[in-house]
Design a protein that fits this description.
The complex is a heterotrimer of chains A (152), B (620) and C (406). Chain A is of the alpha/beta class and 152 residues long. Chain A is 34% helix and 18% strand. The two termini of chain A are 31 Å apart. Classes of the chains: A alpha/beta (152), B mainly alpha (620), C alpha+beta (406).
Chain lengths: 152, 620, 406
Amino acid sequence: MFLWPIYGISKYYTKKKVDLTSGKTNTLMHKCFKKSMHVFAIDVGCDNELTLEFYSLLSPKYNTHRFGIFFTNTPKHADLLAILSRPTQMMVDPLLEAINQMPQPFGIMLLENSDIGIPFETLNIPNVVAHLKGNIDAQTIFSTMLSVMGRW
Amino acid sequence: MIFFEFAILFFMLGIALYFNKLLSYFFAFLGGISAFLAGIVGFLHPFIVLNSKLFDGISLSIGIDKLTGLFIIISYLCLSTIAFYSIDFGKLFSKSMALLINIIMLSSLIVFSAKDAVTFLIFFEIVNISLFLSILERQNAHRQAYSFLAFSEGSSILLTLSFAAIYAKTGSFLFLNAINNSVFMYFAFFGFIIKMDIVPFHIWIGDTYSKAPSNIAAILSVPLTLIGAYGVFRTFSLSNDSNLAILAILLGAISAFWGALQSANEKELKKLPAYSTVENNGMILAAIGISYLAIHDKSLEILASFAFLSAILILVSHSISKTSLFLSIGHAKETLNKETIDDVSGIFKNVSKTAGSGILIAGLSFSAFPPLSGFVAEWMLLETFFQSYKFQDSFYKLLITFSGILIAIAIGLSSFGMKKLIGFSSLGNADKPVRKIPDTTLKIAEIFMMSLVVLAGVFSFLIIQFFGFSEFLSGLLGVPKGLLIISSKPIFGVISPLMFSIIVLIIFLGIFVFKLNNKNIKHTKVWVGGLDLKDSELFRTQSYSFIVEYILKGIYRTKEYKDKVYSIDLAQDLFDLLQGFAKNISNFLSKTIMNGNLYNYVLYIMLMFILTLLIFKFMI
Amino acid sequence: MKRLLGIIKKHNQEQLLVQSGSFVGILDESQKNDFKAYSILSDQKQSKSITGELFNFRLGPLSGASLECGTYNIYTYGERMVDVDIDISYKSRGIENLMCGKNTTHALTLSENVCANFAFSHSVAFSRAIEEAYKITISDYCRFTRLILIEVERIYNHIFVISRLAMAAAQKVYASHLIYLFDDLLSLNKKFFQSRFLKGINKIGSMNYIPISQIKIFVEQLDKIVNEFLKIYEFSLKSVNYLDRLHNTGVLTINDFDDINFDGPALKAIGYYTDIRQFESDFDFKPIVETDGDSLARMIVRAKEVQQSLNIIKSLLEKFKKDSLELDVNLYNDSKTRIGIGQCESPSGTITYYVELTGNIIDYVYISTSSMFLFNTIEKALKGQIFTDFAFTVDSFGAFFADAAK
């Protein structure tokens, strides 16, 4: 507890070593979030399947905290933005604003389970680290998040 | 002595040159500084300026002694800043305001230094009338100006009666002759606490402060209430009546509580500091009450002088913080031309950095934020109350403990109210249309006042030393001797604002340097569900205050309506009731007696004449 | 009890889709004055303006507080929610419009995409509408499996809603346990029916074939989970703190039903019901009702319905003797115009599909879902409550933006 200034300073200097501006996002994510990653999952017009899959990740069965995965309620605290399904027309602006609010470095995970909504390809979404399609269950989401962290 | 004469000269010049606003205000400023210096000299070496005997028993006597000097130092520090502030601020108002400010400054100087009742009363009336006229500088302020005048005249009547009591007993108007004259005591006490806006005589302040121009509001809030405080101090110095002290503690505690309570739910920009004035004056009154209650007990001499010191420190802190607050608020209010706290949101961003930080620092000082002056003052006040156990009499113990509870709640509530003021007005984020006004002296005055608030807190030990209370300075636990304020002997409680600020500064400097080095900062909008925040979606002062209004709904009599919350100010209601009653009686009299019927009127005069004769015959 | 299920707007004409007892049908526009809910459903709801000292505390569209992207505009002067306006339009995917011009098989998939946790109910309601239009009689096997799976869907949805309530009350252990059971149920679905949310099982006129022996094993495992749920649910009722938060929160009365015409557990919590399962001949159905009308009553109804659903499944399984391999039903694509109405009792209330077809191509479809009504009910229930009760009120209804916005 008394060592926190030393910890803080060491963190400050190690942070500098990672170049946030260049390099592939995936490797950057591996470097920065190997130990812990905060996830902000947003529903932008899905049929609730993905929302509920994310919800069931809270089940003790997955024990996400043990792997350093935490869910946050704002993009400002998040390292990974999980976009659940293709957005509806009205959700495009809030979605882009959420991406804009993410602190560097960040990754975006796209999930889609139907072809309803505006395709992701037309939105020019940056820093995509994973793109899941089709039949997605909680386990798949979990393992993908672990692989984004570089732990799987 | 020479400074006093210079001050009078400058004020006279200011009055004579009233047609040139700039020069007039400038002379007021110079006069203020001279008066301030005269105060310092008088505090250290009391002197007499004038002592001329008009005729038997009535003399004009002016001089500065220790108490007068103290009050002149505090009030002229504020008044000269207000005068300097008015150089640019006065451009928004007519020439007569410069004249009136000079008159007010001149006559208050004489009010403070008057040694006899006649001089005091004459100049006291001049102050009142000039203030009345200067409130009228604002359009449509008639009702407020007259209610101010009514209360001032009420105070004058009580004071006249009290002075009559001195004359009746000693045949002279000198204050010194009033020692242990209990009729004088009570009349003077009530006369002066009206001037201090003590509950229940605070009714007029809310509307009047918000209507009056801000420099005048600052004068109303600080130098004018200082006259009241001066009177109370003077009265107590002449008395050894412990009942009066008990009354002071009670009224002071209730006043502090009530003022803080009203400021906690206030939504108007200038009413909030107005109620804060009520609260601070209540604290001063309570502290002075404890001081004079303890003075009768030989074993409590240290407590008595500590309570006296805390009263002085609250005076200092209240005066400079409140002046700073009113000057900054006035600046913002004239620039944005709005009345409520919600409407002036973003003063720091839209108006000026000085006005914004003025409100911030003064507000924090009233919230007892260390190491500002308000923190030191309120710490000392609470320490005074904590020592209630030292009284032998259990009634005193109970009284002081319960008053202490009220004061503690008051401090909490006022901090709640002040944070509202700071957060919603100074630090708000909205974009507002701004009116350009000349603001150079405004900014300088604001900077001076806010630095004074900080310095008076950090170097409060110097103030304590200057006022001659160095017995409450000590050194302990590595704090060098003289830098630690102690609340009793043997040591009861200690603080050292200077050491605190040094340590905090070192830590914050470190953080600041880290922050400056960090260039990787991304600036984004506020995150509210991914959409821009609309004006209708901003958190309002009402919403902030609702929590206290709801919790204390027993006291506030909170009523919730469809689109608003309504809290009743009981004192205001009672006053309105009295006002209605008085109106009805005067209506009744005007219809029955003074209805233009000559016979009725003659009959009334005859009856009154006989009644008066009878009273004098049998009473005296 | 008669309910207005929706307003069908075609060619500038309005018709009313109503239900009264076992009757579901279309009424003329002239009778709209009989239904107070008409003004709410006809989009004539005026957007509320802010007056006095109120401000709009907007929650959403992307907020951690609600799982879905809807917006709660809460008008308040502090702690009390004076008025609430829920905006469901952010989630609107226009599924009804997407269905038009598609063939029935494609539309069936779309109906499952309205709201995944009610996917089976939607799919059954839609296929019942088509079956009515084509006058298809389904086999016993198909009828029984559908009834069983509807109840399965009810069980996991109810557990989900109760877990949300526990989460809101910060009953972390209880909530985690419930989420575990919820996830277990979904995994069970995946194991036996290849889809966690029972998608793609139902077909028009038939079902994917699942051997009866499989279903029996499924029900055995379901029984275990439900019993575990009931055990911890009973235990949770000992927490006075938890119940106190739900008690007297978001109270509704029968007058609110007259105004809004909501149904499902929210209506049962007041003491009335419009549950269409009462007209089923395949099992005995005694609706579960409570009388308090608050969040606690709604939770109790749901918990008891979990037990009831399990009992229904068991009783169906006893009657369900022989299974038969199902054949796909061919829908002939003549250019005849057909109209069908189909209903299904979803976990939160009745879902009704009104479908017009030309051949097997959909011309017009109107979906009446329970959440449409429930969001209006939530607005009503939140009015006058304080913020602390927000989650307890909203979550107790089991309303979904996906279900309401379609």
